[in-house]
Design goal:
- Three copies of one chain form a homotrimer.
- Chain A is built from two helices and 20 strands.
- Chain A has one domain: Porin, CATH 2.40.160.10.
- Chain A is mostly beta strands and 341 residues long.
- The radius of gyration of chain A is 20 Å and the shape is globular.
- The two termini of chain A are 22 Å apart.
- Chains in contact: A-B, A-C, B-C.
- At the B-C interface, strand 1, strand 2, strand 5 and strand 20 of B face strand 3, strand 4, strand 6, strand 7 and strand 8 of C.
Chain lengths: 341, 341, 341
Amino acid sequence: QTSITVQGAVDVFAGSLKNSGDTARRAVVNSGGMTTSYFGFKGSEDLGGGLKADFALNGFYQADTGTSGRFGGDNLFSRDANVGLSGSFGKIQFGRGLAPSFLPAVLFNPFGDSFTFSPLVVHTYVPSGAFGARSWIAANASDSGWSNEIIYSTPDLNGLRANLHYQFGEVAGRTGTNNIALNLLYSKGPLGLSAYYHDAEVSNPNAGGALIDPTAAPVNYRAITRQKAYFAGASYNFNVAKLFATYQVNDNDTATALSMKGKTFSLGMSAPLGQGSVLLGYANTKRDGSLIGSDIKRDTLSVGYDYLMSKRTDLYTVLMSDKITGASRAASFGIGVRHRF
Amino acid sequence: QTSITVQGAVDVFAGSLKNSGDTARRAVVNSGGMTTSYFGFKGSEDLGGGLKADFALNGFYQADTGTSGRFGGDNLFSRDANVGLSGSFGKIQFGRGLAPSFLPAVLFNPFGDSFTFSPLVVHTYVPSGAFGARSWIAANASDSGWSNEIIYSTPDLNGLRANLHYQFGEVAGRTGTNNIALNLLYSKGPLGLSAYYHDAEVSNPNAGGALIDPTAAPVNYRAITRQKAYFAGASYNFNVAKLFATYQVNDNDTATALSMKGKTFSLGMSAPLGQGSVLLGYANTKRDGSLIGSDIKRDTLSVGYDYLMSKRTDLYTVLMSDKITGASRAASFGIGVRHRF
Amino acid sequence: QTSITVQGAVDVFAGSLKNSGDTARRAVVNSGGMTTSYFGFKGSEDLGGGLKADFALNGFYQADTGTSGRFGGDNLFSRDANVGLSGSFGKIQFGRGLAPSFLPAVLFNPFGDSFTFSPLVVHTYVPSGAFGARSWIAANASDSGWSNEIIYSTPDLNGLRANLHYQFGEVAGRTGTNNIALNLLYSKGPLGLSAYYHDAEVSNPNAGGALIDPTAAPVNYRAITRQKAYFAGASYNFNVAKLFATYQVNDNDTATALSMKGKTFSLGMSAPLGQGSVLLGYANTKRDGSLIGSDIKRDTLSVGYDYLMSKRTDLYTVLMSDKITGASRAASFGIGVRHRF
């Protein structure tokens, strides 16, 4: 038998939500104000000779209703379902795991992986509006996790780790349709740097879906079949405050001449105050191209306070202001508790 | 890391089932003769200063087939998906958790939470007949668990605990549609008392469904949009036997002038015998009102024996007799094993 | 509280797959090259007097995508959801558990429970071709696990164990439609023997489905309503190699005069080499009968090497060659890692 860890997070907040473009305000008890709630198992085995095997099985759930997954139709273990071997050569991992865009996005903004309140994450991964008729689609194609994936990670090279991601498209008779990416993460003293490039042609968590979003009207986002993305991010910890900045380009192509390009930059700050931190985040996206006709802009600002009751439990409150071209500015508010186990 | 408990129950029985109104008898191996089978995780963290954080993630499953949930379309963690903070002020809990009607019902009848054989629970929570064409609908609206819920529980006040339940309706633009309830539980020496009131307008486990049942014919139960319920229960342990009695009123309203009122009383006894207990339970419901036209009555009697192999494992056998107005009296029988882990 | 074990397996491989009859080759990262990936919980309680209670809750998942189950619509705990009592009388188990055909098949071929590369298991349990239009249907009816099941197992009788399997059909008003089986497993020194008989009329994992496969064209396999199966297997460990042989007859009946009979034999060898074993497996099936008209034959040969990194972690590579009447011979290849936890 082995040492298996049961782990996860329960994150629930009460609030009032309205993103720009939403038709109405909603009073909610919702899941994932700061971290997408998840549960799962992980374990590690020492194989001798410096070799190690490990696995992770993690699934998202909605802590307000107990529903499995991040959305209807998500997979049970869509956060992690993988096995890896590591040694002096680095690590190789098989299965479903992180998309290359995930860690650069969540490590280089002060609201981490908040799919509700982090301006950068909201722009990058979260659609607004009803399914099939979005007022906003995610900037990043192909989800925050990749299925059918092989990741090779280098060992730590004086603070630098590089990860090569490859997702098999599994399309019968077409071995050329795949997702491929390289990401870099550097951390040394107060300085953090990150960059990634991905070339995505395969939908997630399951193949056969729309690459970004199935929305067909008023803009035919469903037509997007390929995305190349370029990202650079930096953080510096001045102790009185940690500052964050990111810049990314999402270049979307279709089977026809139509295309769309998005450019997102974000700025952030996390400043210790009392037994917690003041958080400030801003993201700004501009999209243009023949697919959408007129340009679309969005800017989102969040300010919050995260109070640490312990290393594993915190209380948070966030106020977010959001504006998309053609829709009114809208504000959201939440107060919640996050418990890691 | 923390002390997380993996917990649950496996309850399987073999039997022959026919409720009054069922078209045919079925020989079965079924799940949940005494307790709805479930599995899950819970944990607790000492935050210091008398404060504590805890969480629970529990899902039902059917131990005869391995199916998730209590029924098709149920949520993975529909039993519990919540996080709470407790201290001298009592406890506040966020997420999906108990409905206010659950503990009063299952603590004040000798068959506990048996959704198969407890007369009170069967009347209160379990429909009879095919989906959409019931011969019986549950007396209680809005499920035995509530989603999007905040519960405030008082500390123990000399044997009395009060719980205030509030479920957000999460209807966009309509903050007035919610579920709200107060329940009271008192226990001191041989005496137990309980009461609750709820005002329910929101379906569970997910919003947007029928409040009680989607059945539209021969009676349009689907039209019920609001229920107020009133409950009082008592138990007294005479040592030779513990006696139970409950009374409840379920007042159902629709968007039109149609309405239905149900009144349920139950009596029960649990008497130690050998390494177990003889169980005797009876429930009687009468419904009237313009929604149903003619009155509907149901009475159900169960007699059983629960044999304790250990604190965690018991064998049980139950015989149940059931009669609904307009249908023949029918009997069910089961013999099973329940194992808590 | 009790000692509960969290357990499972993560098995992922990269490969190129084409079974005979498949329209195209697919490059994949897939789950379950050697063992169907699963996760779950088990526990045991000493009841005193030689009695023991135990339970198992295990679910399959696809480690390449994180999807629950072996296929869409599979049950969460379709591997195991059962509780048992054991003592000197043997063991009685209730719930969902093994089909009687499973252990004889997987213990008597060198590729174990590989639903991808074991010739015997592929012939016996795995369909080829698109859902509803198979180029191959499984030889065995009614799944590798049975729901609504009672299993009585004898104690170990000098190396012999016998298991009586009974699955309730749960068809209202028809108590005569059930699955019933006897299997025998013998192990003593280098010799292993096995046999089973089943008479299957009920689909799995859920009732109401096709007994073997819903395919209606070009052959109406959906019409099969009953199957009797007979199996005998033997293994002998010569130390330089362990040899395996099995023979089975699957006799399928329909509600009309149409019928189909299948005969499958398999041969296998597992030979230690270095820190692992060379595996060689062959299966040959011939089907005839009025249901299919012309005879159908299939033969499949696999050769592989399984390298043990530890008792719990191994690397494997397999090459499989497959031929079904009327389709071209096709080859599959995979290299993977399996980690048990």
